[in-house]
Amino acid sequence: MKAEPRTILRFLLEYFDIINELYETQSKGGVIPYETLNLITSKHNTDIKSQLIDYKILSSVNDNYEIRTVYYNLIEFILSEFKPLLPETIEKYHVSISELFRKIKENINGDKVILNQRLTELANEIRTFYEMVEKNTISLLNETRELKANVKKIDYREKIVRASRWIDEYIIPLNKILDINHSASIANKLYDISEYSNRYRLNCDDESTRVLFEKLYFQLIQVNDNLLRQSKILTTELLPLIERIRTESIILTGWITFLKNPYKQKVPPMFESKRTNIYSNNTFFNASEIFEQFKNETDIYFEDEINTEEKWIFDKDFFTNKLKSNLPVEDFFKWCNKTLKEEYKKVEIEKFFALTTLAFDEDIERDFGKTPEFDKIKINDLTLTVPKITINKHGIS
Amino acid sequence: MEFPNHHRQIVEDLMSGKFVLPSERTFAVLRDNEQSYTYFFKASFNYDLKVTQDFIYLVSDESNEMLSRDVCIFIALLSYELDRDGKNFLERIQFSEFEVEEIENYFTNSSYIDLILSNKQLKDADSRKNFINTLNRRNIIEKTADSRFVFTSAHKFFMDFAADIVKFENVEKE
C-alpha cells in the first residue's frame, strides 16, 4: 500500500535523528548492517524498521540495508554534506550534452515535437551537470579546509599524500571540465550552446521552440557565470593545496572550525554599550500618555442646569389669609401640617418651616395654655416635637 | 573625593565598549589603578574590568553577541583568505596596513561567499564600510586614512578565542 506523502514527510521529520544516524553509517560503510540498524533504533527506544521499509526509505541488500538513492540525496542536500565525486561521473554529462546538442543542430528544421523534447532534455542535463559540479566543489572545499585545519593532527607526510590525491584525482580533472579555454571541456561546449541558443531564440520560426531556446539561453548565462566562479575557486584555492598545507597554525585551525558553523559557536563576550539618556526612561511613556489624551478628543458641552421644578416661594399673604379664615386654630402646628397636606398633598420640611413662621407674626394672638403641652408631628422621616399653640385672633379681626 | 587623571575619559571609553590600548594615556592610569577601577566598575555597574598587557576592556552580563560574532567572522575570513593567498596572515594582521580595496577583493572572491552574503554587516561593500567604522569605534582597528587601516593589539582578543576553539575541541574529545 502506498503511504500518504505527508505521512512520509512527517515520519522523516519525527525520526530525523535516527535517519541521520543511518545516513552517517551508510556514508562511512556503504551499507547499513542489520545489527547497526537494530542498535540505532533500539538506542532511540523505538522500532520503526517496518515503516522504514514500508515507506521505501530503506531497501534490503542481502542481509543488510541501504537508504534509497532519492532519500540519500535529499539528506545529503539538506545537510550540505556531499562526498566528492570522481570527475569520471561528471564527465559523462559531456557525452549526453554534446549528443543532444549535435542532434538539435542537425534537425533544427525537422520535427518540432522531437526538437522541443530534445531542448527540454538538454536543459535538464545541463541543470543536473551544474548541480553536480557545485556539489563537488563544495565537498572538495570542505575536505581541503579540513586538511588545512588538520584538527585530527595527521602528520605532514600523510597530509601531502591526501592533498596529492585530491589534486590528481579530483581537482585537476574537475578543473579540465570547467576550463573554458580547453576546447574539449564541458564549459566550452556550454559556451557554444549558449551562442547557438542566442541566435535561435530570435530567429526560429516556431514560437514554442523559440521560447525553449530563450529559456535555455538564460539558463546558460546563469550556469556559465556560476561555473566561472567554481573554476576560480578551483584555481585559486584548491590547486595550490600542497603549498597551502605546508603552514599550520592553531589560530587558523580555530577559524576554519569556527567558519564551519559560525552561528552555532559561542563567541567571546563583547561589551554591550548602553546609551545614557539625558532624560528619564519613562519620558516616552509619559509623553505618550499626555498625547493620547488628545488623540480622540470628544466634544464636551457644559449645559446650565435646567430646573424642571419651579422654585417654591412662600406666599405669606395667601397662608395668612388661610389662617385667618380658619380661626380660631386650636393647634397651630397641626394646622400647618393639615394645610400643607391639603395644598400639596405631601408635606415637605422646607414648606413646613416656612409656614410655621406665621406663628411669629406680630398681629397674631397666641395662647400657649396654662401648662405647656407638646405634640409630635411626623413629616416624612422626621418626627418633630412641637408645643401646642392656639391661635384665636389675627390683628383686629 | 579625588579621582585619577583622565577618569572621565576612562569611564566614557570603556562604557562605550572600546578596548583601551597601550598607546593611549588612559591605559597606564587604568593599570596603575587596576584594583580601584575593578572595584569602581563592579560596585557601580556590576561590570568586570579585564586587564591584559595588550588591551583593557569591560565585560557585562549582557554581551553584544551579534557584533562579537560578526567580528569573529570578519577576522576569520580575512585570516583564511590571507593564508590562501600565500601570506602569513598573523604577521600581516599584526604588523601591516590594509587597504579597504584589498579587503573588498578578498571578500568578493571568497569561497565563503554564501556566508558573506547572508551576513547583514558583511554582505556588500557599503555594509563592510560601515562595519570597518564600527571596528574603528571599538578600537579593534585604527584608521590611518579614509580607506586604510591597521589592526590594533585588540585583535589578539579574537585570535586567542580562535586558538581556544581547537584547545576546547581537543579537550572535549579527550
Q: What value does the Rg of chain B take, in angstroms?
A: 18 Å
Distance between the termini of chain B: 54 Å
* Percent in helix of chain B: 55-70%
Report strand order across the widest sheet of chain B: 3-5-4
SS summary, helix count of chain B: 9
Instruction: Supply the CATH architecture of the largest domain in chain B.
Output: Orthogonal Bundle
Mean pLDDT of chain A: 84
Give a concise summary.
The complex is a heterodimer of chains A (397) and B (174). With 397 residues, chain A is mainly α.
Task: Give the key terms.
heterodimer, A: 397 residues, mainly alpha, 3 domains, two-stranded antiparallel ribbon, 16 helices, 61% helix, 7% strand, B: 174 residues, Arc Repressor Mutant, subunit A, 2 domains, three-stranded antiparallel sheet, two-stranded antiparallel sheet, 5 strands, 59% helix, 11% strand, elongated
Account of the 3D structure:
The complex is a heterodimer of chains A (397) and B (174). Chain A is 61% helix and 7% strand. With 397 residues, chain A is mostly helical. Chain A has a two-stranded antiparallel ribbon with strand order 1-2. A two-stranded antiparallel ribbon of chain A has the order 3-6. In chain A, a hairpin with a 2-residue loop joins strand 1 (58-61) and strand 2. In chain A, helix 7 runs antiparallel to helix 12 (250-260). The relative contact order of chain A is 0.06. Chain B is mainly alpha-helical and 174 residues long. Chain B folds into two domains: 7-59, no CATH class; 65-173, Arc Repressor Mutant, subunit A. In chain B, the strands form two sheets. In chain B, strands 3-5-4 form a three-stranded antiparallel β-sheet. The N and C termini of chain B lie far apart (54 Å). The model of chain B has no long low-confidence stretch (mean pLDDT 91). The interface between A and B is large, with 35 and 48 residues.
